[in-house]
Design a protein that fits this description.
Elements (H helix, E strand, L loop, with lengths): L5 H17 L12 H12 L7 H5 L3 E3 L6 E12 L5 E11 L3 E3 L1 H12 L2 E2 L1 H16 L3 E10 H4 L10 E8 H4 L1 H11 L2
Parallel strand pairs: 2-5
Antiparallel strand pairs: 1-4, 2-3, 3-6, 6-7
Helix pairs in contact: 1-2, 4-5
């Protein structure tokens, strides 16, 4: 992974300092003295997906395998930032795929979720990107991704609906064609 340079981190910190001042705060107040730099480092961390490479994440963890009818990894937690408000949204992703002679190391699926979540994002695109990448890298017979997220842009501002959650579903390949296969996936998710 490519890291942001110290110069870039300092530049981001300068912008945070300006924002804090514009909000009416005293940047010299004890609690805020180091906040711009901490915020800049935090922002670099939570957007690290921009500086990662999917092939490096997979790192040769695709294996020849015959026989599985479906592979399902559920409840992979994710944290992201809404690109509209730069507020967090977070939740869980579940991935199912039908192998076509290849499987991927299970931890790599979680890393691929983070690859797309750790950037400015919308949940709909996040779900589609995960599905499309797994389909492409595995040449799977089909992929299904379900993402459920809580969005602070809906909970702490705007409509302020505390109990709302958003679910997005993306399918490809045989999952597009087979309602029975989608049903099998959702039944497996319920266990």
């Amino acid at each position: 992974m490519r890291e942001l340079s110290e110069e870039t981190i300092k530049e981001i910190a300068g912008h945070y300092e300006a924002i804090i001042r514009l909000l009416g705060e005293d940047i010299t107040r004890e609690g805020l003295l180091k906040t711009p730099m901490r915020a800049a480092k935090a922002m670099a961390y939570v957007t690290r997906g921009y500086r990662q490479d999917a092939d490096e994440i997979i790192n040769e963890a695709i294996f020849t395998h015959e026989g599985s009818k479906m592979v399902l990894v559920k409840d992979i937690e994710f944290y992201s930032l809404c690109e509209h408000h730069i507020l967090p949204f977070f939740g869980k992703v579940s991935i199912g795929y039908i192998p076509n002679g290849k499987t991927i190391g299970l931890s790599k699926l979680a890393r691929l979720v983070d690859f797309y979540a750790r950037r400015l994002q919308v949940q709909e695109r996040l779900t589609a990107q995960i599905c499309n990448l797994i389909m492409e890298k595995l040449n799977a017979k089909g992929v299904i991704v379900v993402c459920t997220g809580d969005h602070l842009c809906m909970k702490m501002r705007g409509v302020e609906k505390q109990n709302s959650a958003t679910t997005t579903i993306e399918t490809s390949g045989i999952f597009d064609e087979s309602p029975a296969l989608r049903d099998e996936f959702f039944k497996a998710l319920a266990h």
